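Encode chain A's predicted structure.
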Amino acid sequence: MRFSLILMVVTAGLAQQAAKPPALVPIEKLNIPKSEESAKDADQPQAGSLNGNALFGFKDTEGRIAPAIAALARNPKDPNLYLAAARMQDSLLRFNESIGMYTEAIEKFPADYRFLRYRGHRYLSVRKFREGVADLEKAVKMVPNSFDASYYLGLAYYFSGEHAKAAAEFGRCEDQIKKPLAVKKDLLGGRSCEAMKDDVNSMVPLQYWRFLALRRSGDMAGAKKYLDEEVSAKLTVTSSVPFYDSLLFFKGVKEVNEMMVGANEGTRDFLLRSSGVATYLFTEGERAKACGIWARNAMDQNWDHLGVLNSESEYWQNSRAACSLYGAAPKPQ
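Encoded structure for chain A:
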C-alpha cells in the first residue's frame, strides 16, 4: 500500500509537466535550439549528459562576471579573488570556464585545498565523476576536517556507483561530531565536520545521502540501524527541509503525501524528494517504479541539481542494466 501511494503521488506530479518538456538538446543537434527560450537564455554548452544531451549555461545578461574578472586582474595573487571569479561563473552554470579558473588556481596556490574541493564539485556537475573523485580525495587528504570536501567526495563516490565508499566517507565526517580530530586544519572559512553538531542544516543532507548509500551498497540492516539510532525526528530544520522530510519518510514518521506536500513538479524541491523515493523503491525491489521516476528526472532541465545527477547516474549508468528491462528514457524531440 505504501508503494502504491508513493507511485500515485510521484507520477501525478510527473504528469502535470508532460505537456512542457525540458529544454534539452542532443549534442549532435547543437545548432537546432529546442525553443526560443533556450536560444535566448543559453550560453555555450557546458557538458553532455550521460544520455548525450547538451547541457547549457546562461548568458551573463547582467554583466556580473566582468567585475569579478577585473578585480582578479588587478590582484592575481589573491586566492580569494580567484575563488570569487570562478564562483561567479558557477552561478551561471558556466562550468567549463570555472573549471579552467580552478585549474589555474590549483597551479598557483597548491596548498589551498579549496580549489580542489570546488573543481571536484564542478567535475560532478559536468558528469566527470572519476575526475571529481580524484580532486576531492586530494582535498580530503589535505584537510580531513572539511565538511564540504567530505560531502562532495561522498557524492562523487555515490554517483560513480561506489556506494560503500560513499557511505564510509559520509560516516567518517559525521563521526567527527562525537570524536573530533586531534589535529584540525585551517578551513579558510569553510565548514567543518565537527561543527555539524550545531548545524543541522548541514548535517541532514549528509545523513540523507549516507542512508541511501548504505541501502544502495546492500547494507539494509546497517541503513535501518543508522536511521533508527542516528537520525532524529525532533530537529528544527530551515534550509534543508526536502532532505529532512525525506528522512522522516524513510523512518516512517511521515507518509508520502506529507513528504511531497508543496513539492510541485518542475521544482528543484520535487527533484530531490522524488529521486530519493526512487532510490528507496529500487532498494525495496520496486525497480520498474524506481526506473520510471529516474527516467523522467534525468530529463529535467535543472541539470545541475543533485536530484538530476542522482537520477541520471542511476538510470544511465549504475542501474542501467536493471532499468533497461523497463524501456528506454524519453528522448528530446
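The CA atoms of residues 147 and 294 lie 28 Å apart.
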